[in-house]
Amino acid sequence: MALFKKKNKERDDSYYYASQWQLMYQKFRKHKLAMASAVLLIVFYTIAIFGNFVAPQGTEQFSGEYVNCGPTPIHFFHEGEWEGPFVYGLKRDRDPVTYMNIFVEDTEKICHIDFFAEGDKGGEYKILGLIPCNIHLFQAEGDGQVFLFGTDGMGRDLFSRVVLGAQISLFIPVVGMILTVALGLLMGSLAGYFGGWVDNVIQRLIEVVRSFPNVPLWMALSAALPATLKPAQVFMLMTIILSLISWPNLARTVRSQFFSIKKEDFIMAARISGAPASAIVLRHMIPSFLSYIIVNMTLTIPSLIVGETTLSFLGLGLRSPATSWGVLLQETNKLETIMFYGWKLIPMIFVFLAVLAFNFLGDGLRDAADPYK
Questions:
Q1: 339: CATH
Q2: What domain range includes position 60?
Q3: Distance CA 366, CA 273 (A)
Q4: Sorting pLDDT into bands at 50, 70 and 90, what band is 122?
Q5: Lesser CB count within 10 Å: N end or C end of the chain?
Q6: DSSP of 333-358
Q7: Count H helices, E strands: the chain?
């Protein structure tokens, strides 16, 4: 009994003597949706980083023989006998009702799926942009084809394009979030710390930026991008565009936080001791509400994901041959596509999951930011 009480006392003491980050982590672990979302996002980003390895084809591979081919089923048994993972060959046929070209399985042709396969179907790539490699997670042997998500209007593997598109759709928002937070902290710190005419100028600037509707402003800024730019250049300019119109909310919050804490005793003590303004802001004021900034970072990314997807879907962002989830959804702007080629909506599922996961993660961090609640 005494040992049990001692353990309980140690547990209570560890709670009250824990650091802020330890308390946040303990509270965050209890948020099941946030934990599941964190795992899902780790999986998404890991696949995106090693996308060229996971994708059986590259962005430049296509086949006119398999235009608008539906997803190919994976089989394990042939005529009741175990064969391991394989796909049947595909042959073209015509739908007797719609008279459209369709693809049916040729059950006389078995193409086994090879894992960690080396071949020219997916093309060569560089691991992390450094190490040349030609190995892919899986490929069908011979002339067999594995289209897990079907193909698009040019015969390109949609699964490969979803995986490779994640490299842009998931990393543009991260870069944009960094720029947004940096700009929001800078403008909010200047307005909150100095006040006066500096605050008035920044507040009027915020009101001007916030007065524009988002989509028309995105369209106007994106239309200014020359069509001759390379995908990498469009990538950077889109990131800057999204950042330039996403910082006002954070800036206003930082400003209000500065006004509420700049007269606190520890801030006044730092001023009296002769600490420069930059040291007061960076060492004392910003760390005092760092948990909110972290939450804001996770909640900024979903809006930037939707922004990039919207621009690319409208044809004002990235364009082929660059690949992103928004670019992949461009083919879904026709009713015919939705009616007959429903698998082309699959990229939308990943946009939905990524945005939802970031929102749940932000909710979990927001709850964890107040561990004593």
A1: 1.10.3720.10
A2: 56-160
A3: 34
A4: low
A5: N
A6: GSHHHHHH-GGGGHHHHHHHHHHHHH
A7: 17, 6
